[in-house]
Amino acid sequence: MADDIKPRIRVPQNPKKGEVIEIKTLITHPMESGQRKDAAGQTVPRSIVNALNVTYNGKPVFAAKLEPAISANPYMSFFLRVEESGTLAFEWKDDEGKSHKSEQKITLAA
């Protein structure tokens, strides 16, 4: 399953200094709650992305704790005021202790 996990990030291109922008992110993940049964009647083990942490130039800007009730392929969005060009670093953590990371650069308009 680890090969199927794919983070996606969308940020506006060339925002102006001081502008508030919307950051959108989605991670491809089945988000098994541990309550579903397979065709053989066996419980499918819980396997969810349980945390998302985002930093901008190394400073925390967003954090979320996810629970089993979140649907597959969780989508999140948040707003960020940008004062300088830099890098958004996303880290999703799952129940197996794995970490899925992705980065997106933001370049301010001149």
Structure, explained:
With 110 residues, this protein is mainly beta. The protein has a single domain, classed as Sandwich (Immunoglobulin-like). Helices cover 0% and strands 48% of the residues. The protein is built from no helices and seven strands. The strands form two sheets. Strands 4-3-6-7 form a four-stranded antiparallel sheet, with no helix packed on it. The protein is elongated and about 60 Å long. The chain starts with 5 loop residues before the first strand and ends with a strand. The mean pLDDT is 92.
Notable traits:
110 residues; mainly beta; Immunoglobulin-like; 3-stranded antiparallel beta sheet
Radius of gyration: 16 Å
Question: Helix- and strand-based class?
Answer: mainly beta
Detail the poorly predicted runs: none
How many structural domains are formed by the residues? 1
What is the percentage of strand-forming residues? over 45%
Order of the strands making up the biggest sheet: 4-3-6-7
SSE succession: EEEEEEE
